[in-house]
Structures are given as C-alpha cells and as structure tokens.
Write a structure and sequence with these properties.
Elements: H1 5-13, E1 18-21, E2 26-29, E3 34-41, E4 46-48, E5 69-71, E6 77-80, E7 87-90, E8 107-114, E9 124-128, E10 135-137, E11 145-147, H2 175-180, E12 190-195, E13 201-205, E14 210-214, E15 225-228, E16 238-239, E17 260-265, E18 271-276, E19 288-295, E20 300-309, E21 319-325, E22 330-336, E23 355-365, E24 371-378, E25 382-383, E26 393-394, E27 397-398, E28 405-410, E29 415-420, E30 438-444, H3 457-466
Antiparallel strand pairs: 1-2, 3-30, 4-5, 6-7, 7-8, 8-9, 8-11, 9-10, 12-13, 13-14, 14-15, 15-16, 17-18, 18-19, 19-20, 21-22, 22-23, 23-24, 25-27, 26-27, 28-29, 29-30
C-alpha cells in the first residue's frame, strides 16, 4: 500500500523515526519523544552582588554595567537538589571570556522550576535554597546561591580578589570580593559539576583545564588538578589551554574554551569521567574528543582514555555540551553546532542545524576505537502535541535552537531534563534581537534508560505526579 500525502505529513508532524514493516507498509515509531514540561527563567534575572558587566558592551536590549547585582545567567551544569523538584544549577564564568568576566562571580544557584505541562503549571522558575531546598520565591537573594571562594589560598595562582583593579582597567575590585576571596570568571571557567559521597563538589574548568574540588559551601579544598596528556599528542605532557594560569613556557595544546565541558560521576560515586569540548590541537583526527577517567579515592587520573567521535565537523563549531551517567557504562551526551535560531523561523538566515542527545556505552567501541553512539533526541524536532512549548512550538514541533545547550539530567527512566546556557546577554536563538531566556525542558523518551541506581522514590513519585 503506497503512503499517501496525509500519511507522510502525519509522520513528519509526530517527529519520529520510522521502520518499514513487511509488505503491508506499516510505519512503526522507533523514537517517539515528546515534550512534557517547560519552564522559563527570564534573561534579565539578577541576584545581589558586586557590580558586573563592566567590561562588556550592551546587546539585545540589555545595557551594562549591572550595578550592584549579578546576572543569574543560563546554566552550564545541573544536579538534583536537596528536595524533590529542586535543583542545583551552575552558570559558567560569566560573559564568555577570561578578559571580560573578572567581575562575574562564580556561583551555584538553587532553583525550583514549576513546569508547564499538558495538565497545567505556569512554566516559571523560582529561587530555592541550595542547602535546604526551601523555595524562596521569584527573587534570587543571598540565600539562593553558594558562592565559590578561595579563603584558604589553595588554588596556587593569583586570583582577581588579590588585585586592586580589574585587569587592563582602572576599575577598583569590589571590596566584598577581596575580603571574601570570592572567585570570578577571571579565575576559572566552570562548566560541569558533580557531588561526591561526602557531599563535597567536583567542578570541571575550561581555563586549565582543571578539576576543582570544593566544600559543600563552595570553598576550594585543594590545588586544582591538571590533566596529563595520556595520548602523547605533541610535546606538552599536560593538556593545557592558552588561558591556563600555570602554562608558563609550555605550548598550549587545547583551544581556548574547549576544556571540561562535560563531567559524569559513576553510579558508585568513585570515579569521574571528564570530557573535553574540543580535540587536542595536535590530533590529526579533528572529530575526536577525549574522555578521561579520574579516581576520587586516589585523586589521580587512571590513564584510561575513551574516544568520542563528533558528527558534522565540517559544520560550524561542532562541540559537546554535557556528559551525564546513566549507569556505570552508559552515558548521555549533548552534541551541537555553534549556530542558533529556529529553523522554522524565516527571520533566521542561518539557523541552528544540529542539536542532539546521544547515548554512548564505554564498553562498546567500533573498529577505530570510538565509543558507539545511539541517537535519542533531535532537539530541533521534538513532538509537542499539547502545545507545552508555547513560543517554541510551530505546527506541533518544538525546537530547542540555542547556540549552547549544556545540561542534561535523567529524572527517571523515561524523562530527561535539558537546559540551555543563554550566554546572557549575547545569544538570540529564540527571537532575533531579544536576549535568550534560560529554558528548562523535560522530554519523555519512548524507551526507558537503564538508570542505576534508580532515582529516589520521593523523586519518582514527584515526577509521576507533576509530569504525567
């Protein structure tokens, strides 16, 4: 039986891949993902703090400096919070570069998203305590974040708090920053975070790249840990970017802003898996990204290195956005291009083309030694039959067309949370000329993930109730 035009349109509107079964021409869904929740944090959301944005220019309707406040920003990493429905969300270094972010404070925020679903909900994001999980309201105050600091001078290199003026300026460093030895985007570029068995935090940085260990309250506990060049590519025995404060006379072998974008914690919480965002400069295979294993007990890398192959490296700025464990061998990876804009919106002349969620298995590699990948979600083509996505949905299809999508977290075997980094105030993936909001979406998969350990019962009950 030939497929009619109506059959073809129906298949497209459902946003699924299909398999042809036998002579009857039956089309069977094989990846029928659906948007089941969305919450939005407005771009111009601020928290108390020293004046920020003094080294950037205005963009997309936002005018710096931001006097006596810090933008909450989009998020580069997310963890389950203290109570069901809450999360710990971490922005990166601020405004995108080491030079323009010395007045952007490094923090971890507590949030509580009230998702819009087919059954209701306002789609808003509330502040919450990152320590207790208490929901604090729409305003982000001092109780809503953990401030990273180096009170005991553990980092081993000069930080902004030790200076009298911000680099290359005559602007005085804020006294609060100096007194508290608060860390800023001029010190580290934090992109990934995990919580150990003891409640301490492990943070992946891009300037080094470094592994950074802090207390639960954000205080640096030990010197940052560098990554050895286990592949022996080039002459540098370490993996170092041009922004590494300990570079010395070494030659950098990793491009700027290509450090530890993704970092996963295994299910027994004994090992970290840190993933570089870009290839080593001396690697002739420009599609290869490296995943390194780190032992939390010995505080050393084990030397085990896994290879991940990026798709479409001829396209604009292919990179990964996050790495999250499903179990001891399976992981989720966000891979994306560096384009932005809804391909369904003709106002974008060069819209996003590639934003995807993959599943990988470290125990399964191909003949070239790369971990095998399985496509789970095309983030530019998500079924939204109940219009949960509001302005992100056209013709029943929701798109997530942001330049950087940097957070994925399984909520239960069928539901994953995905969040963008809005690069405030510069990115414009949703509406031309308007600074992107931070959007938190929940996508329901058609096949369950083998989550080990299973999420806490309280959390599973919460999502069953609120994201049916």
């Amino acid at each position: 039986m030939a497929m009619t035009r109506n059959h073809i349109l129906l298949a497209a509107s459902l946003s699924i891949s299909t398999t042809w079964i036998g002579s009857i021409g039956y089309v069977k869904p094989t990846n029928a993902v659906e948007l089941v929740g969305r919450a939005v944090l407005p771009a111009a959301t601020f928290a108390p703090g020293p004046t920020s944005g003094q080294l950037i220019t205005g963009a997309n309707g936002q005018t710096p400096p931001f006097v006596s406040k810090q933008p909450v920003q989009g998020f580069s990493a997310i963890l389950l919070g203290p109570l069901p429905g809450t999360f710990l969300a971490m922005p990166d270094n601020g405004f995108g570069g080491k030079a323009n972010s010395p007045d952007a404070l490094l923090r971890v925020y507590g949030i509580f998203p009230e998702f819009k679903t087919r059954f209701g909900g306002q789609g808003r994001v509330f502040a919450a305590s990152p320590i207790t999980g208490q929901v604090l309201g729409r305003t982000f105050g001092k109780r809503s974040f953990i401030q990273l600091n180096d009170k005991n001078s553990k980092l081993g290199f000069p930080i902004i708090a030790e200076q009298s003026t911000y680099p290359t300026t005559t602007i005085p460093v804020d006294p609060q920053l100096q007194t508290g030895r608060w860390l800023t985007g001029g010190d580290l570029d934090i992109e990934s975070i995990r919580k150990g068995k003891d409640g301490t935090l492990w943070i992946g940085d891009e300037f080094g790249p470094f592994l950074v260990h802090t207390s639960a309250s954000g205080e640096i506990l030990e010197p940052p840990i560098s990554l050895p060049n286990f592949k022996g590519l080039g002459s540098n025995t370490l993996v170092q970017s041009p922004d590494n404060p300990l570079l010395g006379s070494n030659t950098p072998n990793l491009a700027r802003s290509k450090g530890f974008e993704g970092m996963a914690l295994n299910t027994s919480r004994t090992k970290l898996y840190v993933m570089l965002e870009g290839p080593l400069t001396d690697d002739v295979d420009r599609s290869r990204l490296l995943i390194n294993e780190f032992d939390l007990k010995t505080r050393k890398y084990t030397g085990r290195v896994f290879s991940y192959r990026m798709e479409n490296t001829t396209e604009s700025g292919q990179a990964i956005g996050d790495l999250t464990a499903i179990n001891d061998s399976e992981f989720l990876v966000i891979e994306r291009d560096s384009l932005q804009g809804d391909p369904q919106n003709p106002a974008f002349a060069n819209p996003a083309k590639f934003k995807r969620l993959y599943k990988i298995n470290l125990k399964k590699v191909d003949a070239q030694g790369f971990v095998k990948k399985e496509l789970l979600v095309d983030l530019l083509n998500i079924s939204d039959p109940h219009s949960v996505g509001d302005n992100g949905t056209t013709g029943g299809i929701f798109t997530f067309p942001f330049v950087t999508i940097e957070d994925v977290l399984p909520l239960d075997p069928f539901r994953v949370l995905i969040v963008n980094d809005n690069n405030f105030p510069f990115s414009v993936g949703r509406t031309p000329g308007v600074a992107d909001n931070t959007e938190l979406i929940v996508v329901k998969l058609d096949n369950p993930l083998s989550l080990v350990p299973a999420p806490p019962t309280s959390w599973q009950n919460y999502w069953r109730k609120h994201l049916r």
